[in-house]
């Protein structure tokens, strides 16, 4: 059979005339079948590509593993993703990690489309080994995917809007204070103190140090909480290829199990005893968040939450509370010690609003605008993590003209938004004044950022439940540190090194500063 006959045969087969030359060869049949398959399978796809917008730009994925090999070769993943987006000149990308479409976003308009316009569709969280372990199988309000349990726990999380009195880790003794202070340690333990006072009405799990500082159990608590935060949503391979769970290829499984066990044990000891006290009527007054949770009743009058649910809710609060304020204060202080005129401006505001005869109180917050502007710029420029907590698409949708498949992990980039040169002038410069309204210098500065030009408390159904408390914690910590001490860099240093960590965006090294008390002695913690 000639080539012309073969082509005629194929064409007629495809067009349905069923003409076949008598001596049809197997090769011809194979070719015809392939052609039919090709035409049949391509036609609908062509139709749907016309109807459906393309995926956001990104590297071509390989079968099964997608872009995981590139990601693993260019760790840390967040730096690789941002570098790639910059090279491509895009504010939204699609990276296929295993079977998951990961969608990083660096532009506020697109972020608003996700968390405001389509909030309903992006209200879930990813299913990962670490988040499942820490939330005891998704019992909590922070890490659970969308569903009944998340709604129940979110409703059950009514945190106080104010910082519990007398919980300040600031009250370090004068004897220790005129010396080099590890600001990171102080800031983290201040947040830990507040969390424990809020939940358990007690700063300590065990005995405090003689100077009032954190004891061994409080150190264990904060270490475990920060360890857990470090491995939640940390681009672990099995987050994207779930059939690899159990092999612990990144080592994260062991780490999160241990951290979960530590925090659950420390919280659980108090919760067991408190549960017993309520059960036997030894306790009747609501003194803290734990009492509120234990006393919640369903419409039938039974306990609304199980003991495990109460424990898990408190774990979620612990991880939600400590990292943001402590990180922002450490960075803000570092930037301001390098820019003494900014530091002087903030201290002058505290002098004017509060004076030296009492400590900064929550009632001062509305008038400490410059201080809040400093915190805002620290959150913008130096967020605690490169990405916001991930959101998952419940259905196929279109964002910024691109197709976002159901199940995609949408990552609003905290550094991409906060350092976006199209949004912020001179974005890498720490400049609190950018947050003071030039048309109304007295307008109150708030820490919330609803336009998502950077991420503070975020917004929408998965937005932070505790913006007032988060504001109070951050302002009180920073305000009291600035009010209580004159901060200077150690004499041996020309300037504070503002480098970020290799694998995260904390300061590469904890901030060590010289602290000189500046208030009357009775305002500091008195060692017993
Ligand atoms: C300065 C302090 C704080 C900041 C900057 C902050 C910020 C955030 C952010 C960015 C989210 C994720 C929002 C999203 O997924 O889009 C979040 C969620 C959350 N925050 Fe906060 N937060 C702070 C303090 C607190 C405190 C003190 C509590 C509780 C006492 C808390 C409880 C929660 C909870 C439960 C969620 C999860 C909500 C959900 O998934 O439905 N946060 N927070």
UniProtKB/TrEMBL annotation:
It comes from Eleusine coracana subsp. coracana. This is Tyrosine N-monooxygenase. Residues 158-168 have a biased composition (Low complexity). Heme binds at residue 464. It comes from the Eukaryota. Its cofactor is heme. SUPFAM superfamilies: Cytochrome P450. GO terms for molecular function: heme binding; iron ion binding; monooxygenase activity; oxidoreductase activity, acting on paired donors, with incorporation or reduction of molecular oxygen. The keyword GTP-binding does not apply. Residues 148-171 are annotated as: Disordered. InterPro entries: Cyt_P450 (IPR001128), Cyt_P450_CS (IPR017972), Cyt_P450_E_grp-I (IPR002401), Cyt_P450_sf (IPR036396). Belongs to the cytochrome P450 family. The chain crosses the membrane at residues 18-39. The keyword 4Fe-4S does not apply. Keywords: Heme, Iron, Membrane, Metal-binding, Monooxygenase, Oxidoreductase, Transmembrane, Transmembrane helix.
